[in-house]
Structure formats: C-alpha cells, structure tokens
Amino acid sequence: MTDTHKLVSEFEHLTALERHIIDRYIRRERLGPVPRRAPLTFGERVADHVASFGGSWTFIGIAAAAIIVWMVINARMSTPLDAFPFILLNLILSCLAALQAPIIMMSQNRQAAHDRLDAQHDYEINSKAELEIVALHAKIDEIRDQKWAELLSLQERQLALLAELAARDRG
After folding, report:
1. Measured between alpha carbons, how far is 128 from 134 in angstroms, rounded to an integer?
2. Where are the domains of the chain?
3. What is the pTM of this model?
4. N or C: which terminal CB in the chain sees fewer CB atoms within 10 Å?
5. What pLDDT digit, counting tens, does each position of 107-122 carry?
6. 70: pLDDT strictly greater than 80
C-alpha cells in the first residue's frame, strides 16, 4: 500500500470536525477568537439573574431571616395568619422552589451549551496548534538533515585537500 493510499485511508476515518480542522490548516486559515454569542433574550437574562441570586449566600440569609420572622410573628400573634405547623409558609416555600428550580435549570442549560461551544473552539485551536508543531518539527528535521549533508560534503572536501597536501609533502 502506497503512502498516498494510507493517507486517504486515514483521512476517511476522521470525524467531520477533524476534517474541518485539517482543511483550515491546509488553507492556512486562522481560527480566530471564540465565536460571538447571540444577545441574550429577556427570559435568559432573568434566568441568569435568578440563578445567580438564588445560588448565593445573600439569598440564603434573606430566606432564613424571612422564615424566622414569619414564624416569630405567627407564634406571637393572638390569632395567627399561619399557625404552627406553618402550612402557608410551607406552601409558599414549595411554590418558590417549584418556580426557581426550572429557571435555574434554564440558565444552566444555556451555560452548558456555551461551554460546549467554547470547548469545541479550544479543541480546534489545540488541534491546529498540534499540526503546526508537527510541521515545524518536520521543517527543523529537514534543515538539520540538509546541514548534516553540507557538513559531510565540507568534511569530504577537507579530507580531499588534506590528502592532496599529504601527497605533495611526499612528492
């Protein structure tokens, strides 16, 4: 099997992304910066803010304080709005959790999609850099081999000159 057939055989086993990287490498195209993302919609911005605030110590502190205040007020009132075991409070917290969880998931799903794009872009850059490094190694090896050939040629000429000088001394 010739080298060309081996190369074609190997190329057929590559994924579409790997072929795309090699194609861009051959055409000497730069990969450039991370692709720009589309502007966030209103819902995405809200989801990000809810996820950011809902996953903070500030939210935990405010929620804990609100729960304690609710319980203290209702425990001290003569006719409480929500008597022990605080069923209304449980209902409010359950509704909050039921609404907050999917909003946080939307934000996380969007961020995961962005992370996948970033990872793919990083992979393309790293793969292209690897190809460039291999090409540089090949060029350096070629230059080294050429210099060795030149050195051997020079050495042969020097030996021939030395042999000629030695023959003159004898003669």
Report:
1. 10
2. 38-109
3. 0.63
4. C
5. 999 999 999 999 988 9
6. yes
Q: Return the closest-CA partner of residue 69 out of 57, 81, 79.
A: 81
> Are 34 and 125 a contacting pair, CB within 8 Å?
no
Which residue, chain included where needed, has tokens 């992370």? 115
Q: DSSP per residue over the chain, as a string?
A: --HHHHHHHHHHTS-HHHHHHHHHHHTT----SPPPPPPPPHHHHHHHHHHHHHTSHHHHHHHHHHHHHHHHHHHHSSS-SS-TTTHHHHHHHHHHHHHHHHHHHHHHHHHHHHHHHHHHHHHHHHHHHHHHHHHHHHHHHHHHHHHHHHHHHHHHHHHHHHHHHHHHHH-
Packed helices 16-26 and 87-170: angle between N→C axes, nearest 10 degrees: 40
